[in-house]
Amino acid sequence: MHPGPRESTIRLRDGRTMAYAEYGDPDGVVVLGCHGSPSSRLERHVEDVEDYRRWGVRLVVPDRPGFGRSDPHPGRRVADWPGDVEQLLDSLGVDRFRTLSLSGGAAYALACAHALGDRVEVVGILGGAPPPDVPWPWPRWIPSRVRAGLHRPAQLASVLRPAFAPLALRPELIPRYLQLRLNPADRRVIGRPAVRRILATTFAEGMRQGPAALAEDRALLFRPWGFPLSEVRQRVHIWHGTQDWQVPVVLGQVLSTMLPKCSAHWPPGEGHFLVFDHAREIYRTLLD
Predict the structure, then answer these.
(1) Closest-CA residue to 55 (of 29, 75, 73, 77)
(2) What is the sign of the dihedral through the CA atoms of 103, 106, 201 and 275?
(3) For the whole model, what pTM was predicted?
(4) Which end of the chain is more exposed for a tag (fewer CB within 10 A), N or C?
(5) pLDDT tens-digit map of 104-148
(6) Cis peptide leading into residue 248 (ω within 30°)
């Protein structure tokens, strides 16, 4: 039986509770995990949690507002996240850190890099997309009312909330759904029992408070994030599978062109959850 994470909460200055989890070596290099959407503090990138200790990593993953056990933050913006992160890391006595995001967490990792400056040493992005500051190749299936709501996140969240409500009823089934609709590489990865358990656990925890946080999170990602990516000065590493059917690789390519110091990795034939097969090299790159 693998050990679970070390879990705790802090009280933020505005009175909200933030929950977080830690894996790995308490004295290791700190990597802030910016979880996907939906997901939670229980998101990790390895099947064997002892890998983090072996690699000298201290992975710290906070729940974003409304996910897991973190209180909602009405009216929040992407650019508000670094303030929460700063309070958490100050409470843990952490000065400098690296950050690694999965999917919808990319905006939040880049926001931390922009706002916290030298405290963020390097950024890793797994299957991320750019902000809508550039024209997106919108799939035809996205309703026009969703596109119309891009600059009105509260309105867009109200449109999305009923669409996500069924996920909140049985979030532990999301991996099975993904396995049916994603590419062969993702089906193979999610087909491994340990990976399926990890995803089921973190999705279920992320939706603990219902679909509102997911709807809000997606709405925020579809509007300008509140800072120019051209001002992100840290080295950013992007890993994006060429056969990612969840976030098409063209979006990762657009994001890479918007960042001044970007090293892009395009694993051929890989999908959205490539990290479970490439975690060792990804963490080695972050720690170099």
Answers:
(1) 29
(2) positive
(3) 0.87
(4) N
(5) 999 999 999 999 999 999 999 999 999 987 655 555 555 655 555
(6) no
**Phi-psi region at 210: left, alpha or beta (left = phi > 0; alpha = psi -120 to 50):** left
- pLDDT of residue 85 exceeding 70, the answer is yes
Q: What is the pLDDT of residue 10?
A: 98
Q: What is the pLDDT of residue 177?
A: 65
The answer to whether the CB of 276 falls within 8 A of the CB of 45 is yes
∠ CA 209-23-282, rounded to 5°: 105
CB of 238 within 8 A of CB of 262? Answer: yes
Q: Is there a contact between 233 and 260 (Cβ–Cβ < 8 Å)?
A: yes
- The class that CATH gives domain 6-287 is alpha beta
Cβ–Cβ under 8 Å, residues 132 and 222: yes
- Which residue type is seen at 240? H
